[in-house]
Design goal:
InterPro entries: Acyl_CoA_acyltransferase (IPR016181), GNAT_dom (IPR000182), YpeA/RimI_acetyltransf (IPR050680). The chain has helices at residues 3-6, 20-33, 42-46, 50-59, 107-119, 135-143; strands at 10-14, 61-67, 75-81, 90-98, 125-131, 147-158, 161-171. By secondary structure, the protein is of the alpha+beta class. The structure holds coenzyme A.
């Protein structure tokens, strides 16, 4: 089945403080099931109280998507900018995660598109990092218009294993 025939069954929205319990569940699931895909770790974040996740939703821009008409979340993605005058032309896409049962449905591209629609009014460029062997994520970002501009060797160390990261950027210029 094509993605376009399925994507209308999902809705993406900006999450607010009241979404903190669902956001925490999905975020911890992401960190626990894919430790090599994120700079943060499950061990750090599972120890945090709900208020920490609420604060994150207040301070950052996080979009979530799930079946249209339901409050359940099947995917999340975050975006932040920096205040410094010399850095505020750039934003960072972070924390992209889609539950296994919602992969290949079009939800992942909807989330990235939502970040870019939001970001293009605020910044000139959006940056992200992705583990080089994460083919699905690299392809997702390339399809959305991100291009690779570098490689950071041994960017992450998970246990005894190192993971290189591809640095990618999207520009509206
Ligand atoms: C990355 C992620 C969000 C992608 O979600 P998705 O629903 O699979 O995304 P899409 O269906 O749009 O697929 C993206 C591309 O990867 C391809 N793909 C999907 N699964 C794949 C796999 N296991 N191996 C290789 N390619 C794969 C798809 O065919 C598609 O390629 P195309 O654009 O050429 O058609 C999802 O896999 C995920 O949450 N992974 C765990 C967390 C993670 O890695 N986050 C990214 C952190 S940077």
């Amino acid at each position: 089945m094509s993605q376009s025939s399925l994507s209308p069954t999902f809705a993406v929205r900006r999450l607010s403080a009241s979404d903190a319990p669902g956001f925490r569940d999905l975020r911890l699931e992401a960190l626990r099931s894919h430790p090599e895909s994120f700079g943060a770790s499950w061990e750090e974040e599972t120890a945090q109280p709900l208020a920490w996740f609420t604060d994150r939703l207040d301070r950052s821009t996080v979009f979530g998507g799930g079946p249209a008409g339901a409050s359940t979340l099947s995917g999340i993605v975050g975006f932040y900018t920096m205040d410094s005058p010399k850095l505020r032309h750039k934003g960072v896409l972070w924390g992209m995660y889609v539950r296994p049962q919602a992969r290949g449905t079009g939800l992942a591209p909807m989330l990235v598109t939502q970040v870019l629609a939001h970001a293009r009014h605020i910044v000139e460029e959006v940056r992200l990092t992705v583990v080089a062997t994460n083919t699905a994520a690299v392809r997702l970002y390339k399809r959305a218009g991100f291009t690779p501009y570098g490689l950071e060797p041994r960017a992450l160390k998970v246990g005894h294993d190192y993971h290189d990261e591809v640095l990618m950027a999207w520009s509206r210029l």
